[in-house]
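Q: A reviewer asked whether we had any structural model of the full assembly, not just the individual parts. We don't, so I'm hoping you can provide one. Inputs are below.
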Amino acid sequence: MRDVLEGSQAIARAVALCRPQVVAAYPITPQTHIVEALARLIADGLLEAELVSVESEFSAASVVLGAASAGSRSYTASASQGILLMSEVLYNISGLRVPVVLTCANRAVSSPVSIWNDHQDSMSVRDSGWIQLYCADNQEAVDTTIQAFRISERTELPVMVCVDGFTLTHTLEPIDLPEAGQVDAFLPPFRFSRSLSSARPLTQGTLVSPEFFTEMRSLQHGAFDLAEQEILAADRDFGALVGRDSGGLLRVEGDREATVGILAMGSVYGTLKDAHRSGLLGRPVRLLCLRAFRPFPSRAIREASEGLSDLIVLDRSLSPGSGGIVAHEIRSALYGSGRAPRIVNFVVGLGGRNVPGEIFQEMLEALEKDPPAFSIFDLDPEKLPLSKDPVLPTS
Amino acid sequence: MVEIRIHGRGGQGNVLAAYLLATAAFFEEKFSQAFPSFGAERRGAPITAFVRIDATPILRRSQVTSPRYLILADDGLLRVSETLSGLSPEGAILVNSSHAPEDLRKRLEEEGISLGTGLRIATIPATRLAMEALGRPIPNAPLLSAFLSLTGILSTESLGRAFAGRFSGDLLTKNLALVSSGASLVSENLWKEPTHA
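A: Here is a predicted structure for the entire assembly that you could use as a starting point for your response.
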């Protein structure tokens, strides 16, 4: 049903359509509205689920780990420091191969303190063994949330649905919420193959000696190959029910024949697409929207980059001392492929800095001036301290 | 596409104002988008919220930096230079103020603040109206209905429907009365443009 909803409300209702049995979360801006809305749905009797109020994100993650291990469909959400506080448990959830869905309302990580949007939080746990899907708009956030439960339960890998904080979570816009029947047809009840039960005792999370540890990790890595197929299948099957798709692993749009491409992840893609449609780019540009960051779709990226001489990769996070994180992985995927484009990495929109449509034309102009392989594009040098004029008092 | 920026202070319901406009647009089968730009989350702090309304799906997610219209929930914000930033020269400002527009201009000029001669300004005493009807200084109903009456972007009936989706009972009745009275205090379609989606 089409409605006009705040992103967080829509995500909560999408979660409810998936009939989770356990929800545990600790509030943190900009995730709070999602969990508040779920709590209200449960209190109003519209969702039959156990809502566990916890005292921290560490506990939130631990509760959903336990609940899912016992066979309950489980959901949590967090952001920023909350994701970091969860991080030990995130590794446990994925290492134990327990299906869980988590919404990350993407927010910068302190210090300095920022409540605003960038991708530093989810990027900080990119190696934790979770599938990561980034949403370009709130419709994708709704549809991806529903798809995430099926992907997670079929692959036995946890899924993090990454939704830009404020830019999506606090934006009200028209959204088509699927009907309960459509979701039920797509998502069968959760039957966990290794569900804990006193009738069939087994131990999870036991010590694994060097004799088997490598094999456990290899199996976990191998599961991500299957995950690529499940992500594509979920988007295709759900798309057939609702008449739209969420971009599979990677969306390729704009001018297919262009020799210059711009790759973005998350909600900035909408502004990029708008700039392209409005003729703001001033030249033909191929647009790439990366949805799956884990598994990292190397083959799809190689195919999408064919014929490009230059590819601008946008990053909304930073690995200090190294550069943009997405760009490193794109370079790695394209290295050695012979006709790989030049990769120019621009970090933009850290800590909620506005990313206007005009910035993309500036990037294309910068491309002509032999830019460095990596730079923070929207840096304002006037705000930097001069070496002879330190910002901190020395006395 | 019509781009609107709302300036107010935390606690006045400015984000809700943006959501109400976008919801009213939805009822007229238009595409819309509303989102806040929070500063420090506390009462009294300046708050900005953005609204876009168009006949086709809205892809842009950047902040509204060159609005066609400004809605100010507090006339004191005219003293903050960022408030008018990027406003289209053909744009217009609706201010929640107990002063008439000429009076407001004169008062600001005495303080050395010029609003520009071409800029269209209208005022409505929305806080006073809200205090009388609701007993609370939430100016949304008269302010938004006056805005829609001036611009003709959407009908005030659609705004009423948006209120009905958020409020019920006595509070809804009072807000709907404020929607009517707010609209009647300004010149209908004074700012109407043929290009409005």
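A: Points you may want to mention in the reply: The mean pLDDT of chain A is 96. The first strand of chain A starts at residue 2 and ends at 6.
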